[in-house]
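Lecture notes, part 5. Sequence design as translation. It can be helpful to think of inverse folding as translation between two languages: the language of shapes and the language of residues. The source text, in structure tokens, appears below.
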């Protein structure tokens, strides 16, 4: 990728952070007190995400590198993973920042078609693992609290289960037949942007069909790779629940890891409903408060978790943005 393009991505990220810090109503004195209260647990929370991103990068590496001789070294995939997520966090609608960056970084190594298909496949796998994680959490909730579930919660659980099953079915169809052309065809019906999307699809039909072929090939011919990547992504979701356990250990030892899984599942579902917000501002904190309330845990714990996870995100966003600028070989593509 040209250095000028990297500077654009870097500048967008820095600008987004400045805007969020200027518009945030968080008391920085209170925030610093909470971090001090966390003590050595907070560095553990931050360090945990180095492992989670390693899982994410390994899943992407499985999809991208088909063979004994990887086309892209793992250390670069790890770097692009962290930087891509940093851009996703700070841009509205999430995928508008990180995915184009990853494609442009990979193109000099594997070509535009392979770079595009691998990034789409990984994004699909990442979202697909969310649906699997949410459905697993529904089963876990029924196992733990099914006998005492109030009627209102039962209705909510049924709606969530239908939503998850529909999402899993949709993604399995996408893996079987490809998703790029159908997605562009659907988006072409949008007002204003639809005409441009339709023209783009018509002028790049061959390239888009090639991407769809590579998407379908992953599930049809590389099943071991498919399920290994899914296992790694699902494992990253479960490992992320350990963050909540570490934070709650500061306050209490009466919250189980199973409850942390349920809190994380509900919070991530709630935050994804507000995907258009940079860093899901407000949505995640609200999700934490509702989730802990539903499990009869003090709502203040939810606020505390929301604050510390927000600081952790800002730290890793800063790391990701810095990685955009370092460790790059000279590319002109």
């Amino acid at each position: 990728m040209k250095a000028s393009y990297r500077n654009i991505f870097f500048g967008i990220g820095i600008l987004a952070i400045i805007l969020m810090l200027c518009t945030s109503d968080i008391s920085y004195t209170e925030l610093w007190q909470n971090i001090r209260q966390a003590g050595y647990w907070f560095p553990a929370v931050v360090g945990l995400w180095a492992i989670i991103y390693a899982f994410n990068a390994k899943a992407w590496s499985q999809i991208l590198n088909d063979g004994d001789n990887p086309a892209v070294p793992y250390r670069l995939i790890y770097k692009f993973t962290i930087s891509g997520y940093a851009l996703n966090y700070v841009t509205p609608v999430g995928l508008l920042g990180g995915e184009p960056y990853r494609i442009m970084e990979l193109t000099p190594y594997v070509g535009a078609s392979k770079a595009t298909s691998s990034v789409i496949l990984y994004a699909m796998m990442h979202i697909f693992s969310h649906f699997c994680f949410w459905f697993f959490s529904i089963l876990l909730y029924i196992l733990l609290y099914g006998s005492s579930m109030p009627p209102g919660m039962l209705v909510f659980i049924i709606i969530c289960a239908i939503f998850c099953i529909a999402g899993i079915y949709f993604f399995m169809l996408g893996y079987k037949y490809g998703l790029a052309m159908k997605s562009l065809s659907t988006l072409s019906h949008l007002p204003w942007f639809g005409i441009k999307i339709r023209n783009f699809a018509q002028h790049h039909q061959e390239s888009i069909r090639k991407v769809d072929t590579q998407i379908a090939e992953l599930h049809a011919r590389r099943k071991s790779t498919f399920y290994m990547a899914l296992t790694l992504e699902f494992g990253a979701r479960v490992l992320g629940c350990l963050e909540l356990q570490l934070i709650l250990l500061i306050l209490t030892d009466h919250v189980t890891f199973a409850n942390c899984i349920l809190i994380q599942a509900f919070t991530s579902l709630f935050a994804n409903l507000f995907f258009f917000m940079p860093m899901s501002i407000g949505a995640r904190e609200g999700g934490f408060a509702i989730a802990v309330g539903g499990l009869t845990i003090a709502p203040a714990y939810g606020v505390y978790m929301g604050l510390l996870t927000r600081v952790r995100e800002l730290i890793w966003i800063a790391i990701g943005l810095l990685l955009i600028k370092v460790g790059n070989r000279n590319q002109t593509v």
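The translated text above is only one of many valid answers, since several sequences can fold into similar shapes. The radius of gyration is 21 Å.
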